[in-house]
Amino acid sequence: MSVKIPATPIPCQNFVSGKFLKGSGLAMDVVSPYNGQIIGNLHASTAKDIDLAIKDAHETQKSWADVPLKERTKIMFNFRQILMRDLDEIAHLKSSESGKTFAEGKAGLMKGIEVLEFALSLQNMDLGGKMEVSRGVSCEFRREPLGVIANITPFNFPAMVPMWTIPIALTLGNAYIWKPSEKTPLTSMKIAAALQEAGLPDGLFQVLHGGKDTVEAIIDHPQVKAVGFVGSTKVAQHVYQRGTALGKRVLALGGAKNHIVLLPDANPDLTGAGISDSFTGCAGQRCMAAAVVLAVGDVDHHIQKIIQRAQSLVLGKDMGAIISKSQVQFLKDAITRAEKEGAKILLDGRNTPAPAGLDHGHWIGPTIMDNVAPNSEAATLEYFGPVLSIIRCRDITHAMQIENSNPYGNACSVFTSSGSLAEKVIRQASTGMVGVNVGVPVPREPFSFGGANASKFGHGDITGAQSLDFWSNSKKVTMKWEKQDDSNWMS
Ligand code: NAD
């Protein structure tokens, strides 16, 4: 299905205390990567807008904390029903602002709903515990909300990345401040409206638009207790340092350059599609996309299959657009630089024509470059586009040395039929997530999402069981109700 692009610009507004309100700051346009047209506009939030929103969230959260978990969960269940009802409409909107295909837009939202389903299951999980520790004395562990928490999200998943945190943080009893990417802010209005319709009390979910200044004012606000961030490594590090310097809890996920170890014995049916779909899916604009193939031994038969699959993709139908014109230019220049440095272009997307009628959009075709040198820009710089670099390796040890020397740590996959070689890669990979014959090794819930090294600053993961400690406080209670005859150290 082709993406329905808004015909006239949508006014994108903050969502504060249950109302859609225009920010008081600078105006910004939202451009569709599909046709280069302005499809929305917003006004950034000023310090005053931010202060009002956070103060109201702070007040409202106090009563939300007293709502039993099962009652909070009922609202989240309604939220799921509404998102499922509006799935296509939201997928069209998020795809038109981010450049995804309709199928990718829908899949991203479904992945977000999977995290929501995990949040629904919290009511049935052991969120606390109690035991008698000595005669007449019990110790109890309780999970309590933090208060007001904030999340800052990137352009590439306008619904999925925010949905990593919205359901879990709200279900645990927090108030939520969201600063969406200014490049893809429109989807936030659908999510805010769905939460309101679901019955979430006004003031608990506030959306504040803007760029760097808005982010910094949110982090600095004294009533914000914890900050989640997903975006590029440079900004993730900045957000982490700024928040932790103020004594706040911060989990900041950054960029990536993901490696695939390709071995000759790999299953041909899984390999061509697995690797091609990994680097071309979402037009390469995802932090789990394959960026570098570490080709061990004679794997040319696999590489041919990757090329065949990638060159069969139809732009605008099977593969979407790139977020901005400047990013398309960056990708084309990077490919040209790599070629000059000695890379062999096996598939060249630089001149792939735009889909009919979308000439003003931001398009580039899949590109595969062979004989890339391990320390070159093509091997090390995050491109964030449908460009795959192949590095020829002497053996698996050489391949893992290259993987280990890269600063990022989101994903590493291996394609092989050998269990023991797969195990070697699992053990030696420097990443938070590893795949075996899987091109995009995003764990399904309740297994958590989170990288390592320069792909993640802070402790824990952003979803799943590993995220609960981040979005809550633990309280330990020791109780004695009656005097006991025998003495013990607590008497
Ligand atoms: P970005 O870092 O430019 O922006 C992310 C957010 O930070 C946006 O909301 C933006 O407004 C804000 N921001 C930008 N500059 C800022 C600054 N100087 N100070 C404070 N805030 C600032 O990232 P992007 O271009 O929107 O997204 C692409 C990047 O995100 C890629 O590097 C990709 O790998 C990464 N990403 C990582 C993950 C992950 O899970 N690790 C997931 C998705 C995307």
From TrEMBL:
The keyword Hydrolase does not apply. Gene3D superfamilies: Aldehyde Dehydrogenase, Chain A, domain 1, Aldehyde Dehydrogenase, Chain A, domain 2. It comes from the Bacteria. One of its GO terms (molecular function) is methylmalonate-semialdehyde dehydrogenase (acylating, NAD) activity. Pfam families: Aldedh (PF00171). Its EC number is 1.2.1.27. GO terms for biological process: L-valine catabolic process; thymine catabolic process. It is an enzyme of class 1 (oxidoreductase). Signal peptide: none annotated. Residues 25-477 form the Aldehyde dehydrogenase domain. Keywords: Oxidoreductase. This is Methylmalonate-semialdehyde dehydrogenase.
